Amino acid sequence: MANNVCNDLRLAADQGQVSALCLLDLTATFDTVDHELLLLRLERQFGVCGVALQWFGSYLSDRSFQVLYGGSVSSSAPFLKDRFLGHGCLFYILPI
């Protein structure tokens, strides 16, 4: 898939077209921020709406985690609101 994306970007550049690539890293970072606030900012500041906003909301709901330590895996446990640790989420748009 990455080769297809790179190839499409190269072809567009060869034809003088402008391209933008948006990559989202949907990892545990989202578990360190207030989900309601994140969804509100996505909608109001970045214009995310409709199905895309619903997808983010669905992704952020009913999250769980496991711990891998020394080759052993814990049982799955739900994330409880305001009961997680982390360094926060850096969410930005790089100007093109």
Describe what this molecule looks like in 3D.
This protein is mainly alpha-helical and 96 residues long. The protein has a domain at 25-87. Helix content is 35%, strand content 8%. The protein has helices spanning 2-14, 35-44, 50-60; strands at 64-65, 68-69, 72-73, 77-78. The strands form two sheets. It has a two-stranded antiparallel ribbon with strand order 1-4. The chain has a two-stranded antiparallel ribbon with strand order 2-3. Strand 2 (68-69) and strand 3 form a beta hairpin. Helix 2 runs antiparallel to helix 3. It is flat, with a radius of gyration of 18 Å. The two termini are 23 Å apart.
What are its keywords?
two-stranded antiparallel sheet; 3 helices; mainly alpha; 4 strands; disordered C terminus; 8% strand; 96 residues; flat; 35% helix
Draw up the topology in text:
Layout: H1 2-14, H2 35-44, H3 50-60, E1 64-65, E2 68-69, E3 72-73, E4 77-78
Antiparallel strand pairs: 1-4, 2-3
Helix pairs in contact: 2-3
- Give, in order, the helices and strands: HHHEEEE
Strand order of the largest sheet: 1-4
Mean pLDDT: 76
Q: Indicate the percent of residues in helices.
A: 25-40%
Q: Determine the number of helices (DSSP H or I, runs of at least 4 residues).
A: 3
Beta-strand share of residues:
5-15%
Biggest sheet descriptor: 2 strands, antiparallel
Q: Please tell me what the overall shape is.
A: flat
**DSSP strand count:** 4
Show unreliable segments: 83-96
Look at the helices and sheets and give the structural class: mainly alpha
If you compute it from the alpha carbons, what radius of gyration comes out, rounded to the nearest whole angstrom?
Answer: 18 Å
Q: State the separation between the terminal residues, measured CA to CA.
A: 23 Å
